[in-house]
């Protein structure tokens, strides 16, 4: 008797109705008696030669319909753990080759430099010869980076390469690379000029130091030019950012004034003309302040010092976009506030569901959630949720 795969588990395995985990199983695939998989109509040929060794993608064998269903089920499962249900909208899916930021690992070996993502469940670097998720401009830098790091790294030494596509071009931040000595500086600036980079910065442990930046590096957010500090946060794809902004705008509606918490460079503050924004990174908060003089921007750690109910009382709507740990302390204050709308953007369905439970216990309704697949083919799920009272 064969068994059908009915869902994909959080970590990417297929799961049958009897609960059996099947590596690389996609709903519709059949597990035959000898354990082999008979592919169903949603099982696609993985486009990249590095799949499944590369840890950048776990689900290239799922077609778009199966991948969308997976994103929905991740959100449903997380909500169900807190006895919550809501309308889950059709997920937004970023197209292939749209990722505009990535952090790659590099290692100098006997025969050259390996650069790529870590392997799936391993620390081995998968030397990237093609990539179906990175923007072509970022991938085009991989081979020149091999040559540069070949001259800068000592044998068996590793480095990290953070690349972000900005308004002026690519911003590269190299970690664990020494910029000591004339030869190293010349190699770095020569590379940056030859590649037409927006900026090249090096971090040897004391924070990023730009070694090349012909014009101030910036990003355009909702039409505003915002200075981009080296290593700052940016939504992973441009279309993903637009989808999240649409969700936030819909949730907030005409309600004003708005507060944007965990504001970063102001992706949502600028889109909603927020009256107030809070952000823990000093450089990031300063950049937003310069770009949006009408917004009161506070450099503030919201884990240690969340806005209390009195402070929240000044706003009709609040936007939250915390790191993976969620925003439990801030949400506990919101639950006791009179704020009418809460737009919650999350990169972790589990902490989102935990925080949603607190808001609902405080009298909010969770009106809808939209998953956003910015990290196409990965098990990483982003979402926007709309709460009202
Ligand atoms: C997921 S990013 C979102 C940024 C922004 N909303 C955007 O979409 O570009 C989370 C932001 O929260 C900031 N952050 C992290 N911990 C924080 C804390 N304890 N208090 C305030 N902000 C924090 C980070 O620096 C980062 O800018």
TrEMBL record:
Q: Name one Pfam family in it.
A: tRNA_U5-meth_tr
Entry annotated with the keyword Transferase: yes
Keyword DNA damage included in the entry's annotation: no
Give the molecular function GO annotations. rRNA (uridine-C5-)-methyltransferase activity
A single GO BP annotation from the record? rRNA base methylation
Q: Which residues bind S-adenosyl-L-methionine?
A: 235, 262, 279, 321
Q: By its UniProt entry, which InterPro entries does this protein fall under?
A: MeTrfase_TrmA_AS, SAM-dependent_MTases_sf, U5_MeTrfase_fam
Q: Which UniProt keywords apply?
A: Methyltransferase, S-adenosyl-L-methionine, Transferase
Question: Which residues are named in the active-site annotation?
Answer: 347
Task: Give the protein family.
Answer: Belongs to the class I-like SAM-binding methyltransferase superfamily. RNA M5U methyltransferase family.
- The protein, known as: Class I SAM-dependent RNA methyltransferase
Q: Which species does the entry assign this protein to?
A: Sphingomonas sabuli
